[in-house]
Amino acid sequence: xxxxxxxxxxxxxxxxxxxxxxxxxxxxxxxxxxxxxxxxxxxxxxxxxxxxxxxxxxxxxxxxxxxxxxxxxxxxxxxxxxxxxxxxxxxxxxxxxxxxxxxxxxxxxxxxxxxxxxxxxxxxxxxxxxxxxxxxxxxxxxxxxxxxxxxxxxxxxxxxxxxxxxxxxxxxxxxxxxxxxxxxxxxxxxxxxxxxxxxxxxxxxxxxxxxxxxxxxxxxxxxxxxxxxxxxxxxxxxxxxxxxxxxxxxxxxxxxxxxxxxxxxxxxxxxxxxxxxxxxxxxxxxxxxxxxxxxxxxxxxxxxxxxxxxxxxxxxxxxxxxxxxxxxxxxxxxxxxxxxxxxxxxxxxxxxxxxxxxxxxx
Length: 362
Hints:
Layout lengths: L2 E9 L2 E7 L4 E5 L6 H13 L18 E8 L2 E8 L4 E6 L2 E2 L3 H7 L3 E5 L4 H4 L2 H15 L3 H21 L5 H43 L9 E6 L7 H7 L1 H7 L10 E6 L2 E2 H4 L2 H23 L4 E5 L7 H10 L6 E5 L13 E6 L2 E4 L1
Parallel strand pairs: 3-13, 3-14, 8-12, 12-13
Antiparallel strand pairs: 1-2, 1-4, 4-5, 5-6, 6-7, 9-10, 10-11, 14-15
C-alpha cells in the first residue's frame, strides 16, 4: 500500500490536517470549494513533487503563511516535502534524512495517476495538455525524463528571450543555448515516441473495455494514437539551423519537443473534431486507465489513483464501466459532491466529510 497517512501544514485552505488513508478506497465528500481537491493535490505534490493544478508553488501556500509542509507514510517510509516562499526554498526528507536529489526522493515515493473533469482537454484542447500528460507519465517511467525536461525548458526560455530581445538576433549567444537545448530536446523526442508506442495499445484496450461495459459494440470506434513530433530526434540541430531566417522573423524557436503533439482518432477520424462529448469523455478515461496499466506493467507497482469528482459528471453507463475497469490493486482516493453513484458500488473502506478545510470521519 503506497500511502497510509497524510499530514498537512498551511497547504491551500488547510492550516493543519492529519488523516489516515485506507489501503483500498478512501472517499472525501462535501460541497464544492471546501478543500476536497486540495487533499488529492497534496498527495500528488508529496509523491511526485508537482501539482496537477498549478505550476507555481506559491499558490499552494495558505494565505498569510510563510510556506507549506506535507508529510506521509509511503511504502513504509516517511516522506516530507516543505516549501517556503522566501527564496522558494524546497526541502525533501526521506525517513528524516535530507534528500538533495529530487530523483532519489521520487524513487522512494509512489506512482500516481490523476483523473479529473478537465481531462476532457486531452481530447478537445490544444497540444499543451497532451504534452503535460506525456510529461507526467514519462517522468514516472524514465529516470532521465524529468532532468531532460527541466534542462530543456530552461534552455528554451532563454533561447526564446534572446530571439525576442534584439532587432537582429545575436546568434552567437543564441547558439550557446542551442547547444544545451539540442541534446535534451533529442532525448525528450526519443522518450516521448517510445512512451506513446507503449501507451497506445493499452489505451485502445481500455477504450474497448469501457465501451463494452457501457453496452457499446466492441468492433466499432477503434481508438488510435499517433505521435506528431515537433522535431527529429536525431536531426534537431540541423532543423534549427535550417530555420534561422524564419526564427529571426517570428522570434521563437520553431522546432523541438515543445511543439510535440499526438493525434487521437476514432476510426481514423480526429476525435477533437468528430467525436461527441460523451465519446471524448470515454477516450479521456481510456487514456488515464492506460496510464495506470503502463505504470503497473513497467514499474511492477500499482499507482495511486486520485479521482477528483469525476463520477458525478459521467452518465450511469460510463460511471459503472469506469468503476469496473479501475485496477483492483490500486489505492484509490476519491472526491465527490454527490453520493448517488455509490448505490451500485461497494462502500469505500474509509469515508470523510470535508467542510471549510476541516475533515471528519463518517
